[in-house]
Amino acid sequence: MTTQLTLIQIDNYGPWTVTPEPRREMDLQTMQSRLFADIAQFLGSRGGYVFFSRFDNMIAVTNGIGRAGHTALQETIRNRYPVTVSLGIGTADTPAVALDEATEKIQAAGSAQDEGRTEVLAGDPLDSDDDSTVHIAHFDVNDATGKYTDQLNEFDSFIHIERSYASLMEYMREAHGALSFFVGGDNIISVCPSLSPDDYQAAIDHVESDAGVALKVGVGRGETAHDAGYAAKHALEDCRYEGTSVEFDQPPATTGDD
Amino acid sequence: MTTQLTLIQIDNYGPWTVTPEPRREMDLQTMQSRLFADIAQFLGSRGGYVFFSRFDNMIAVTNGIGRAGHTALQETIRNRYPVTVSLGIGTADTPAVALDEATEKIQAAGSAQDEGRTEVLAGDPLDSDDDSTVHIAHFDVNDATGKYTDQLNEFDSFIHIERSYASLMEYMREAHGALSFFVGGDNIISVCPSLSPDDYQAAIDHVESDAGVALKVGVGRGETAHDAGYAAKHALEDCRYEGTSVEFDQPPATTGDD
Amino acid sequence: MTTQLTLIQIDNYGPWTVTPEPRREMDLQTMQSRLFADIAQFLGSRGGYVFFSRFDNMIAVTNGIGRAGHTALQETIRNRYPVTVSLGIGTADTPAVALDEATEKIQAAGSAQDEGRTEVLAGDPLDSDDDSTVHIAHFDVNDATGKYTDQLNEFDSFIHIERSYASLMEYMREAHGALSFFVGGDNIISVCPSLSPDDYQAAIDHVESDAGVALKVGVGRGETAHDAGYAAKHALEDCRYEGTSVEFDQPPATTGDD
Amino acid sequence: MTTQLTLIQIDNYGPWTVTPEPRREMDLQTMQSRLFADIAQFLGSRGGYVFFSRFDNMIAVTNGIGRAGHTALQETIRNRYPVTVSLGIGTADTPAVALDEATEKIQAAGSAQDEGRTEVLAGDPLDSDDDSTVHIAHFDVNDATGKYTDQLNEFDSFIHIERSYASLMEYMREAHGALSFFVGGDNIISVCPSLSPDDYQAAIDHVESDAGVALKVGVGRGETAHDAGYAAKHALEDCRYEGTSVEFDQPPATTGDD
C-alpha cells in the first residue's frame, strides 16, 4: 500500500455558519483560511500535504504521520477554534480508493451535520513496515502570465485556469483514480498512482483539446508527500528550462516496482 | 456607477516562489491563505468582500472604501509579509466592466512579473456622492450534505460542486457580466448587475441541465458588499424555509431605479 | 476629555483554560497571541493602539473609534475564536482615570469569572465634538544591543529591560496617572496626560538611579493613538541623531491648551 | 545534561523596524505576536515550549528537537515572514548555563544588528542517548480574580502581577539559575534545575515579603517541556483543590537521580 489519505471534516459546520443567524461572510472566509493554513503548517512540517478542496472538507496526504499526530491535530484545533474536526484515514495504491476508505470511516460514524458526531478519528495509518510511496504530479499552465494575466481581466484569466482544472480533475479521476487540486496561480497538484510519461502526456493532450489550455507537468515520488512534491517541483523546473511538457524527477517506475 | 472592484495582485509572485529554488508547497499555501485571511478581515470590517480566485490575484468588492483605505492595506501587508501587492480600482454598473478597468490600470503599469513594478495603486474609487449599489447573489446546492457529503467520497462530492461552479461562473459571466466565486462548502457568491428573478431562475435551470446539480439562490442589494451579501444570506434562508429556489431580500428593482 | 481607553477582557478565561482539564500551554500561548494580533490589526487600522498587558485583559487606546467599531470587534472575535470578550470604555484627561471608569463599567456587570457575564459592552466613547487628544511617549534603552544583547545571555539582558520597565511603569503611574507598556525589544510606550520635558527627564533620572538603566524618550500627540505614537517614534529618532534624551515632536503644550 | 535551550533571535530587527522610516506600531505588534504564535505551534507540537521574553529574542526549551527541526523552523519563517531568525542551542543541568552557551554561540557569529549575520544555526542538540529531563514549575497568584481583577483597575492589577513576576524572576535566577517567564493572566512558568519543595516554598515566601503577592506552584518533570509542564499544571490543580502552596506531580527527585 502506498498513499495514505486523511479526510478532514469540520463537524456540523453548515448549521454553525447560520446559527443563531448567518455569520459575516468575511469572518467565515477568515476562519476557514486560517484553519487550512494551520493544518498546512502542522502536516506540512511533518512531510504531509493538505488541500483545501471545499474548506469544510479538506483532503490530506499523510504518509509518515501516525495516529498520535492525528490526535494532536484534533486537540490543537479544539483549543484554538470555535469548531472541531473529524478525521478519517485510508490507505491504498490508488488515491481514490484510499479516499473511499477514509470517507466511509467518517460516514459510518454519522452525518457531517449530526450534532452528536464530533472529533471522530477513524481508520488506520500505515504501519512503519508498510511500503510508503507517494506520487505527486505538479502541473502548471505554459506562460500563464504572458497569455492571460497580462492580457485579460482577472476573472477571464481565472475562467481559463478554472476550465483547465475542471477538465484535468475529471480526466485524472476517471482514467487513473488520481486526485487533483488547484493550489493557486496556475498550479494544479495531482496525487497519483504510479503512471507512465505517456499517461501524463495523454492528460495534457486531453486538457488542450477539451479546454484549450496548454499544461506541462513535473512528476516526483517519495516516502512522503513533501518529498514527492518537492521532486515534482524540480522536475517542473526542468520542463521550463528544457521546453518539454513532461519530466520525471527520476526515471519512471517500471510496472510493479513499488 | 454602482459596483467598485479592486484587483489585488501579488507583485512578481511566480518567480518568488521558485527563487532561489522552489519553496515548500505547504509554506506557500500557508502564506497565501493567511494573506487572503488578513485582506478579508481588513476589507470585511469596512463592509467589503474579497474572493481568493487564484490567490496570487484576488478580486475584491470595495464600495465605501477610498484611496486611503487602499493605501493602508498596502502598508500593512508590506510590514508583515515577504511580498507586496499592487491594487487596481474600477467602477461600473456591470462587474465585469469594472474589473476590466481595474485590471487595465494594473497592466498599464507593467507585467505581473516585472521586478520593478511594485505597489501600484491605480484607478479611482467612487466619490461619496456617486451612487453606490452592490448586488450580491448567494447560491448553494440543495441538500448537498444528504446527496453528496454523506454519500460519496469527498473528492467525488467536490467534483459535483466544482462542475456546478464551472457551469454557473461561465453562464453568469457571459449572460450578465457577473462574477461568481466558490467560497467553500456548497456556496457560490456572485457579484451581479441588477437582474430579475427570471434571470436567476434561468441560471439555475442552466446549471441543472448542464451539470446536473440543483441550486437555489438568495439575492440582496446594499450600499456595500456586506450589506448586500448579508441580505442575500437572509434571502437564502427564506428559500430554505419556503422550499423555493429564488428569493430576493427585497422586491427586485424596477428597471432603471438604480 | 482627551484619552479614550477600552478594557478588553476575555470572558471567563481562567476556568476555560483548565476545563475539562488543563489545555496545552503552547495552544493557549498561540490563541492569546493571535487574538492580540487580530485586535492590534482591527484597532490599529482605525488609528487605535492595544497593549497585551496580561493577555486575558488588554488595554486599548481607542480615540476615534465609536460604539459600532466596538461591537464589530466583539462580533468578529465571537465568529472566529473559542472565546468571547467584554469591553469597557472610559474617557478622561488622565489615562488612569479613564481606565478606572472603563474597568468599573465591566466590573459592574459581573465578575471576570462569572459564566453568565459575556460580551458586555459598557461605557461611552467620546462624541465627535469632544476634544480628542492623545499623548504618547515612546521610550527605549540607550544602546541596548551593544550593552546587553551582544554581551549578556538573553535572560540577563531581559532582566535589565524588565527592571527598567517595572521601575518606569510604577513611577509614571504614581507621579502622573500614565500607563506604560513593554512592547518588545527595549521599547516601552506610555499613554500620558500632558507633561513637560522636565517631567520626562525626571522619569528617566528615576529609572537610571532606581534600576541602573539609561532611557531616552520621544513624545508625540495627536487625535488618535497612531498619530500621537507615530509622532513619538519620529521624536525618538531625533533623540538618536541628536544624542539627546527627551524630544517632543512638537513644542510641548502650554498648560491648559489641550 | 538535562535542559536543552534554544535562543531565537530575529536578525537585524531593530534597524528593520525604522527603515526606511518607523513602521506602524500595531503592524510590528501583529508581526511579532504572530511570529511567536507560529513558533509556539511549531515547537509546541513537538513537545517544546517557547517564551516571548523580548519578542525580538525568544527563549525556547527544545528537548527532543534536533538539528533538522531547527533548520525546518528557520525555513518556514523565511518563507512566510519579512524577517529571518538565528538560532543558538545550549545544553546543561542548569537552565541559565544552557542559555549562556546558546547565547554565546549566536554572539560569536556577529552582532544582533549585523546585516551580514543571518540565519545562524549554532550549538548542538542533545544526542538521543543523553539524559533528557526538564523541570517546569508553574506558578500562579492566589485568587487573582477576586483580589485584583474584580477590584482594581486593570493597570493596577497588572502592576501587582508584574511586581510578583519581577521579584520571582530575579530570585529564581540568582538562587537557582532558573529562568522564569510571565505567560499571561496571573501565570509564571519557570524552567528549573532539580529543586526541593523547600526551595519552592522559599521562593514563594520571598515574593510574598518582597512584593506582597501570594503565589502557589505546581512542579513537574518529564523528557520534554510539554511533559514536564503538563505535569506541573496538574500539580497546580492539586494546590487549588488541597489549598496547598507547593505540589509536585511526582515525589521530588532524590539528589542525583536525574
Structure in a nutshell:
The structure is a homotetramer of 258-residue chains. Chain A has 258 residues and is α+β, with helices and mostly antiparallel strands.
Describe this entry's structure for a reader.
The structure is a homotetramer of 258-residue chains. The first copy, chain A, has 258 residues and is of the alpha+beta class. Chain A has two domains: 120 residues, Alpha-Beta Plaits, CATH 3.30.70.1230; 115 residues, Alpha-Beta Plaits. In chain A, 44% of the residues lie in helices and 21% in strands. In chain A, the strands form two sheets. Chain A has a five-stranded mixed β-sheet with strand order 2-3-1-4-5. A five-stranded mixed β-sheet of chain A has the order 7-8-6-9-10. Chains A and B meet through helix 1, helix 2, helix 4, helix 5 and helix 6 of A and helix 1, helix 2, helix 4, helix 5 and helix 6 of B. Chains A, B, C, D: GO terms for molecular function: GTP binding; GTP cyclohydrolase IIa activity. Chains A, B, C, D: It is an enzyme of class 3 (hydrolase). Chains A, B, C, D: Catalyzes the formation of 2-amino-5-formylamino-6-ribofuranosylamino-4(3H)-pyrimidinone ribonucleotide monophosphate and inorganic phosphate from GTP. Also has an independent pyrophosphate phosphohydrolase activity. Chains A, B, C, D: It catalyses: GTP + 3 H2O = 2-amino-5-formylamino-6-(5-phospho-D-ribosylamino)pyrimidin-4(3H)-one + 2 phosphate + 2 H(+). Chains A, B, C, D: Its EC number is 3.5.4.29.
